[in-house]
Amino acid sequence: NAQLAEVMDTSDDWIRSRTGVERRRYAEPGVGSVELGARAVRAALADADVDPEEVDLLVSATMTPDVFAPANAPLIQHAAGLGPIAAYELRQQCAGFLYGLEMANSLLETGRASVAVVVGAEVHAGYLPFGPTAWGRLRGTHAGPVDPDEYAKATEGRAWAVLFGDGAGAAVLRRGGADEGFLAGRLFSDGAHHELIHVPGIGFRHQPYIDAAQLEAGMCEPHMNGMELFRQAVRAMPEALVAATGAVGLTPDDLDVVVAHQANARIVAAVANQLGVSDDVVPGNIAAHGNTTAATLPILYHELREAGRTASGSLVGFTAFGAGAHWGASVYRTP
Question: Rounded to two decimals, what is the model's pTM?
Answer without folding.
Answer: 0.95
